[in-house]
């Protein structure tokens, strides 16, 4: 009976996919929910240039809640210059990819026809071909941005390069989404924990005031609130200071 051996990374069955798999493994190693996403995005750009033979530079465009665009990561200063040309005119591959959530690819001829101003200005920075891949939205309906790859060749990017970059960006983007969801859940858990701790401290302080002043729970809380407003201090801090004074005495 013939046995089919599973391909492993580095076996060389299809070198571009092997390289993409290795790049993704490297990205996952640096992806830290407690760290800064910029490090991950900059590493993503570096790998994009290494993976795509015709790529000379790469960057990541992100859209904020108001829809304004900015460059979150890049392999060179020229990336920012080409991106800014698109942000100012609000046209070009990175804008179209981010807004439409569709892949945008253009060689020199296509770019000159679709965005003549951008194509002409971008050539000053050595860019003649464009490839923008939308990043998966972190949540339904949200606009995340795009990974942009720029090249100096006039004939643009091969279809195989577009497919490989799409696969790589999609996998990397979903990893970001998973990390952001984990970060959000962790932050919510910490907020709930702090809220419960604050409530426990306030309840203890209310108990002290009820015993000392002979008031009910509502009256004790009103006393804490009055002190909070008068001293411009959070109720929790007022409660902590009250409990500390009781322990001292």
From TrEMBL:
PROSITE patterns the UniProt entry points to: ANTAR (PS50921)
Pfam families: ANTAR, GAF_2
Spans through the membrane: none
Classification via InterPro entries: ANTAR (IPR005561), CheY-like_superfamily (IPR011006), GAF (IPR003018), GAF-like_dom_sf (IPR029016), GAF_ANTAR (IPR012074), WH-like_DNA-bd_sf (IPR036388)
Keyword Transferase: yes
Domain of life of the source: Bacteria
Keywords: Kinase, Transcription, Transcription regulation, Transferase
GO molecular function: kinase activity; RNA binding
Keyword Thylakoid: no
Domain called ANTAR: residue spans: 182-243
Entry protein name: GAF and ANTAR domain-containing protein
Phylogenetic lineage: Bacteria, Bacillati, Actinomycetota, Actinomycetes, Mycobacteriales
């Amino acid at each position: 009976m013939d046995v089919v051996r599973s391909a492993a990374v580095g076996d060389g069955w299809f070198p571009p996919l092997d390289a993409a798999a290795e790049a993704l493994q490297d990205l996952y190693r640096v992806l830290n929910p407690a760290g800064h996403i910029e490090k991950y995005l900059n590493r993503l750009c570096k790998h994009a240039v290494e993976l795509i033979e015709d790529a000379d530079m790469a960057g990541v465009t992100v859209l904020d809640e108001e829809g304004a665009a900015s460059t979150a990561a890049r392999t060179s200063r020229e990336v920012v210059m080409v991106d800014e040309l698109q942000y100012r005119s609000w046209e070009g591959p990175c804008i179209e990819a981010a807004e439409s959530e569709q892949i945008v690819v253009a060689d020199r001829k296509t770019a000159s026809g679709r965005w003549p101003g951008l194509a002409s200005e971008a050539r000053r920075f050595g860019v003649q071909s464009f490839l923008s891949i939308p990043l998966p939205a972190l949540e339904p309906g949200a606009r995340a941005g795009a990974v942009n790859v720029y090249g100096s060749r006039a004939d643009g990017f091969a279809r195989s390069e577009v497919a490989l970059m799409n696969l790589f960006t999609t996998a990397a983007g979903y990893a970001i989404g998973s990390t952001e969801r984990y970060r959000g859940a962790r932050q919510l858990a910490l907020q709930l924990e702090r809220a419960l701790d604050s409530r426990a401290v306030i309840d203890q302080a209310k108990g002290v005031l009820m015993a000392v002043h002979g008031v009910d729970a509502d009256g004790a809380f009103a006393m804490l609130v009055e002190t909070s407003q008068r001293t411009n201090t959070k109720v929790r801090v007022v409660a902590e200071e009250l409990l500390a004074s009781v322990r001292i005495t």
